[in-house]
Amino acid sequence: MLQFHPPGIGQRMVATSLGNMACYEPVGQPWPVPRPDATPLVFLHNFGGGASAYEWSKVYPAFCDRYRVLAPDLLGWGQADHPPRDYRIADYLQTLNEFLAATCTQPAIVVASSLTGAIAVRLAIQAPDRIQALFLVNPSGFADFGQDAGRRLPLQVIGTPLVDQLIYGLGAMNAIAVRNFLENFLFAQRDRLAPEMVNAYLESAQRPHAQYAALAFLRGDLYFDLARYLPQLTVPTAIAWGTAAQFTPLALGQRLAQLNPTAVKRFLPLDDVGILPHLELPAIAIAAISQFLHSLSDNS
Q1: CA 53, 8, 173 angle in degrees (round to 5)?
Q2: pLDDT at residue 1 in the model
Q3: I need a labelling partner for 258 at 20 to 30 A (CA). Which of 150, 172, 199, 234 fits?
Q4: Is the pTM of this model over 0.85?
Q5: What is the CATH number of the domain that holds 170?
Q6: One-letter-per-residue 3-state SS of the chain
Q7: Residue 205: which residues within 8 A CB-CB, separation 6 or more?
Q8: Which domain holds residue 81?
Q9: 73 has which bridge partners?
Q10: According to the model, what pLDDT value does residue 163 have?
């Protein structure tokens, strides 16, 4: 996956109790060496077949001059270890907590999308000493307010042994299927999808045992009601929402943000983008994140 990240970005493995997570960060030119006291800025990718830290590769370089940028592949995704297991939310809360403990000497600002954004909310509540602020893109537990948003196949089909493997093979392990998924479900405008994006997702999806985490997401094993947790959030948070996002409409984001106006300082509708504005129109995401980071500096 390193070839899909910008030049001067290196990869290292960070051990957790369930396996190694891959981490991408600046290691040389053209990126400056971060100051020892630089605030960690951690970018967490979405879930779904082929997901990886590549999702943020068009955005995180914009912040390497002022922050200590880290972009990990989560357990079961990208170049991280893929232990064959029944993945649960507790696995990601545990391994993300361990990752932050191993890589950050001070509380991090976390940028995360979709289901991982919802997990970041729970982690900020569970381990407030690890996270100082959140910037979330379309955060959803996919069962918010008691309604499933992401499941599109019957559970009896997804959960059938061998059939679920076939579904994954047909839907995530060939270029045509990956392109169709990105065009039809994640992007608002299909002409913004580049061949490199398809290739990056395909390489991640074809990793040995990559189907275990992806199928856990597809079955709904990782879904939860974010509305139960948002009122408990205390760290400064901004939420950006693609107005053309499928599965999770803008009204859902507005309803979630209204649960905790004290913590959720900003709610930013992003026009004409889907669930991955940071890959579809990176400049829009960079501007929104920059504004939030400036607001944190102004209030410090």
Answers
A1: 35
A2: 73
A3: 150
A4: yes
A5: 3.40.50.1820
A6: CHHHCCCCEEEEEEEECCEEEEEEEECCCCCCCCCCCCCEEEEECCCCCCCCHHHHCCCHHHHCCCCEEEEEECCCCCCCCCCCCCCCHHHHHHHHHHHHHHHCCCCEEEEEEHHHHHHHHHHHHHCCCCEEEEEEECCCCECHHHCCCCCCCCHHHHCCCCHHHHHHHHHHCCHHHHHHHHHHHHCCCHHHCCHHHHHHHHHHHCCCCCHHHHHHHHHCCCCECHHHCHHHCCCCEEEEEECCCCCCCHHHHHHHHCCCCCCEEEEEEECCCCCCHHHHCHHHHHHHHHHHHHHHHHHC
A7: 49, 50, 172, 173, 178, 214
A8: 2-299
A9: 22
A10: 43
Give the range among 52-61, 118-127, 159-168, 172-181 with minimum mean pLDDT. Answer: 159-168
Per the structure, how many domains does the chain have?
1
Of 22-26, 91-95, 218-222, 264-268, minimum mean pLDDT range: 218-222
pLDDT at 168 over 70: no
pLDDT at 171 over 80: no
Is 80 exceeded by the pLDDT of residue 170? Answer: no
* The amino acid at 235: V
Residue type for position 149: A
Query: Encoding tokens for residue 296?
Result: 């944190």
